Amino acid sequence: MGLLRLLLALAVVADHAGPAFGWTALRMTGGPLAVQMFYVVSGFYMALVLNEKYLGSGAWWAFAKSRAVRLFPMYWAVLLLTLLVGFALLLGGWSFEPLARWFGPDTTPDLPSAAALALVQVTLIGQDAAVFTAVEPGSGALFATPRPFEHDGAAYRYMLVPQAWTVGLELMFYALAPLLVRRRGAVVTCLLASLALRVVLVERAALDFDPWTYRFFPTELALFLAGALAYHGYRALRGRRLLPAAIAWPALIGVLACVLGYRALPWPLRGAVYGLSPLVVLLPLALPFVFHLTARWRLDRAIGELSYPVYLVHMLFCFAMAALGWPMWTATSGAVVPLASLAAAWALWRFVGARVEVSRQQISARLQAQQAAAR
Fold it and tell me: H-helix or E-strand containing 142?
């Protein structure tokens, strides 16, 4: 499912970068739907590895270390690179958002708020919760708000890698996943509870707007669990040898076509009910077949490795182009940013990701050796 993951990452990039030469179709699903579809894919993968790879004594700790090694080094590399580029542009006389906010006359956060905003950026933990806060102009105090995007001091504006709130949200799922995804009953129960909460928030509290529609972890948990449930379906179908290529190929082509040609789909497939698109509901049905078909494709796996660094690095290019303000760059940002992000993602994977991948493999090998010794 590597190509699918990369396309979803590029859909977010295109949404942030803007149209390329006026072609809005290149935005594919757009950012919010791409993120939610990625949650489903992530839930599938986490259920897969926790049920088939991270088992026995020491499995939870090995899983936690593996996830940390996967996520943090490339994130920290992008965070550091953004700081360096940002300060270079500031010293050159350009206004680099978001660093300019940290030092503005009316936008500088006070010391406790600055510490909190810095901490969530370094650790990633709680960055999704920080979306629901804003900095009070003048005083610099951080306060919680149900409508953060109505405030000029919304906390996300202070984030150097603002899209990383989704990684913070994923970390919360990783913390719960070992307790949930191994038991179908727990998956179904928590999935229904999460969906029920989504309905209640919309019907009773009128929270039918961003960030509540796709950034609130208790309601987004249903998407991860839908992916986990898809894994349990995959395991059942695999055991009965009911994953034929005659179904898998149309499933793969259909999913990719829906992502690539999203804006040409009929309205019933593009509408949303309680913040959920029909594609998010249909995706778990296709994943068992898509995964079974692509699991051994080395090229697909290599393509998928670019999805995370592409997602991480693209806002750096958006910020830099906005700071420089060159008319030619601004007019072509929808093409420049994705291409630059792909090139930077390859470098990130080559010089950071591939090296830490060795550590991840060592973690897995040690766990397997412990399991073999215990038998």
Answer: strand 142-144
The residue that leads in pLDDT, 182 or 374, is 182
How wide is the angle at C-alpha 48 spanned by C-alphas 45 and 51, nearest 5°? 145
The DSSP H or E segment spanning 143 is: strand 142-144
The CB-side HSE value for 280 (13 A sphere, CA atoms) comes to 29
Token pair recorded at residue 241: 């040898």
Reported pTM: 0.94
pLDDT at 227: 97
95-123 pLDDT tens trace: 898 898 898 888 899 999 999 999 999 99
Torsional sign, CA 42, 43, 44, 50: positive
CA atoms within 13 A on the CB side of 3: 16
- Low-confidence winner among 77-81, 109-113, 281-285, 329-333 (lowest mean pLDDT): 329-333
What type of residue sits at position 357?
E
SS3 per residue for 79-122? HHHHHHHHHHHHHCCCCCCCHHHHCCCCCCCCHHHHHHHHHHHH
For the record, the structure tokens of 367 come out as: 């766990």
Confidence at 25, pLDDT banded by 50, 70, 90: low
Q: Please report, in angstroms and rounded to a whole number, the separation of the first and last CA atoms in the chain.
A: 34
What's the one-letter identity of residue 299?
L
